[in-house]
Amino acid sequence: MENTKPSLFRTIFGMMINPGGTLKNSMLTTKWYFSVAVSAVAFGLFFGQTGFDLYKTGQKGLEFVLLSGAIGLAYGLLVIPLIGFIIWTVLKLSKGERKMKETVSAFCLSYSGALIYGLIGLVFSLALGWKTSVAFGVTGVLWAIGPMIITIRDLTGGRNALSVPIATTVGIAVLISWSVLGNI
Q1: N-term to C-term CA, the chain
Q2: What is the 3-state secondary structure (H, E, C) of the chain?
Q3: Predicted confidence (pLDDT) per residue in 124-154, tens digit
Q4: Which contacts qualify for 79-83: CB closer than 8 Å, 24 or more apart?
């Protein structure tokens, strides 16, 4: 059989539904900048929805919506890959053999679920006027914790004692930083 490159659409949904299989099938062919773009757009949508929800309730102005989206985009573009780099460093110290680019790319791609939830939340927000940052944004980030655990476990060679605390710490840090944004 011919070894074909999985589509970007299939990679995104695969990381949401079957991260272990997707890592094995597509991480060698998925470009690092695509993975970083997934986390950037996911957080741009998530933070932007938060700003939009606050705008709808009259608590913030339209400029806050744009600023929130831009902060989310920067967060997904810079902070999430930085966290991936820190994870790679921890894994390297614990005798991990994965390359930095592969680790950062896999970590960023873990937020595929957040991207899907962000897109769906945006549709519900615009079409139905719902406030979606909690219903879809937080759910998307929480959904990402499962693929993140599986990704980190794969990167650690199956060591749950290392992968679960790392993923939990990262998940908590992301939600706290989102909470800080909403209270600015």
Answers
A1: 55
A2: CCCCCCCHHHHHHHHHHCHHHHHHHHCCCCCHHHHHHHHHHHHHHHHHHHHHHHHHCCCCCHHHHHHHHHHHHHHHHHHHHHHHHHHHHHHHHCCCCCCHHHHHHHHHHCCHHHHHHHHHHHHHHHHHCCCCHHHHHHHHHHHHHHHHHHHHHHHCCCCHHHHHHHHHHHHHHHHHHHHHHHCC
A3: 999 999 999 888 988 888 888 888 888 888 8
A4: 79/177, 80/36, 80/39, 80/40, 80/43, 80/107, 80/108, 80/111, 81/36, 81/39, 81/107, 81/108, 83/107, 83/170, 83/173
- pLDDT, one tens digit per residue, over 50-69 is 999 999 999 999 999 999 99
Owner of token pair 């390359």: 99
- Higher pLDDT among residues 179 and 65, named by residue: 65
Q: Residue 87 is encoded by which pair of tokens?
A: 């994870």
**Residue 167: its pLDDT value, please?**
83
| Residue bearing the bigger pLDDT, 117 or 15 | 117
pLDDT of amino acid 19: 77
Burial class, 18, CB count within 10 angstroms (exposed 0-12 / middle 13-18 / buried 19+): middle
